[in-house]
Amino acid sequence: MTNSALFRLGFVFIVCLTGCITKNNVQAQSLKKNWGIRLGLNAISITNYKVFQDGEILTNASYTNKNGYLIAGFARVTFNRFFLQPEIAWNEYRRTCSFSLPIENSTNYYSPTDLYICSKAATTGLLAGYNIVSDLPFLFGVYAGSDFIGTYHTDYSMDPEKTFTKTDWMLNYSGILGFSINISRIYFDLRYEMCLPNANLTLSDISDFSEFYQNVKIKKTESVLSFSCGVMF
What we know:
Helix content is 9%, strand content 66%. The protein is mainly β and 233 residues long. It has one domain (33-103, 110-232): Beta Barrel (Porin). The chain has an eight-stranded antiparallel barrel with strand order 1-4-5-6-7-9-10-12. The protein is elongated.
C-alpha cells in the first residue's frame, strides 16, 4: 500500500517536472531567495557490523543494504556564490541484518536468520554551499552541513507475515557532503550522510520479540547515500 502510494506521488511529481520544462515562460531561479521540493531514493550503507550473543561475537553475520524513499522541502538564501539551505524531509530507510546463532553444546550453527528493518524518520538540517558554476539558468554547487534525524516508527520482521513495531522516538544526527545541479527550475541533488552514531540494536528492546533472540545485540555504524530530483522556484 505504501509503495503504490509513493509510485502515484512520484508519477504526479514527474508530470509537474515535465510541465516546468515544457512551459514557454519558464524563468531561471531568483538570485537571492528560493524554495523547492524534491523526491528521491536513499540507501543505507552499514559498516563496522558485528553481532553479539551474551557478549560473544558471532562469526556468521552479514547485512544487505536496500533502497528507501524520501520527500523533502527546502529553502535557499544566496549571497553571491555562497548559499545557506535549511531543509525538512521525510525518509523511509530499509536494510536487512543477518546472523546465525550457535547450537547449544555443539560447534554447529542454526540456519541464518534475516532480520528485516524498515524505519520512518523526520529530518531537519542546514547546509552551507558554494556555486562553482553560476551561469544562469545553470548552477553547479557543492555543500556541507548536518541534520537531525528523528526516527518515529520502525518495523522488524523475520517472517513476512509477522511484524513487530516500535514507535518510540529516537534522535540521531549526521554530517552531510554533496552537490546539486540546477537547470532553470529543475534541481538535482546527490549527497552522502556520514556516520549515524546511534545505530546499535538490542533485540530485547523490541516489544513481544521472540525470546530465542532476546540476548542478541547488533552493533553497527550506518551512513546514507541519496539521490533526488525536484523543482526550485
